[in-house]
Amino acid sequence: MQNFVAILAAGKGSRMELSQPKQFEMLNGKTILEHSVDTFEKHPLIKGIFVVVHNDFVEKTKQLLNIKKRSKVKKIVVGGEERTDSSYAAISAIEKFCYDQQNINNPQLAVNILIHDAARPYVSEDIITRTIEALQDYHAVSVAIPATDTIYVCDNEAKIQSSPKRERVYLAQTPQAARLPIFKQVFELARENEEHIATDDANVILNYLPDVKIHIVLGDIANKKITFKEDLQL
Asked: Could you write out the three-class secondary structure of 164-192?
């Protein structure tokens, strides 16, 4: 099996009210995007990296990453309006890249894809390793951590409807991963259904291929998502 990662950086970070997408903000001497890319660049089990960005920031991303210095970055991919569009664009680019390689006869059978949010710059090598190892036994996996707070399910007026047992609730992180044919199938189905807007990639599998069991890989509280300006100060 060869392992490729799609790093999603096509959002504009509107919640942070910045002059540029948050992945280009500085954090400990490098941009958020560079932190995410470099962890996968250094990982020995990762064959290639595909970075998905908004069309307006393709050239900026190429200059920032300077592909000659990061040999595993194979392509900067133009993202779409929704997350599912961006993930599908990356999956399609990875599949084409694999078919173009002479040493992969059937990438449908020989490729794992990890999808990671660029806004999680603290992902560790250990998390990546355990995600890839889990794909030896499972067709799909998602990094997540157990919930430590009580969870409420509310109606549209923010009135509590139920509270699931905390020991059964996990908070999703990335990467989320699956074998290429599974991701390709579910995202093609998702693109046909415009009413369903997925907030993560495991959710797409859950909705369109419910018979595929998604294994949880234990994450880390350090693998947090940069969401607010205050997160840049830590």
From this structure: CCHHHCEEEEEEEEEEHHHHHHHHHHHHH
In a domain, 150, yes or no: no
- Distance CA(41)–CA(63), nearest Å, equals 17
Domain residues for 83? Answer: 2-144+172-233
Give residue 15's pLDDT: 56
Q: Tens of pLDDT along 101-139?
A: 755 666 566 899 999 999 999 999 999 999 999 999 999
Domain-embedded: residue 157: no
Placement of tokens 């307006």 in the chain: 56
DSSP-derived 3-state class of residue 16: helix
Does a structural domain hold residue 189? yes
User: Do the domain assignments include residue 158?
Assistant: no
Using CA atoms, how far residue 149 sits from 17, 103, 158, in Å, is 28, 48, 18
Domains in the chain, number: 1
- Cβ neighbours of residue 70 closer than 8 Å, sequence gap 6 or more: 37, 38, 41, 49
Amino acid at the residue 234: L
CA angle 24, 96, 4 (to 5 degrees): 55
Tokens coding 125:
């090598």
- State the CATH number of the domain containing residue 116: 3.90.550.10
Those residues with Cβ within 8 angstroms of residue 151's Cβ, 6 or more apart along the chain or in another chain: 163, 164, 166, 169
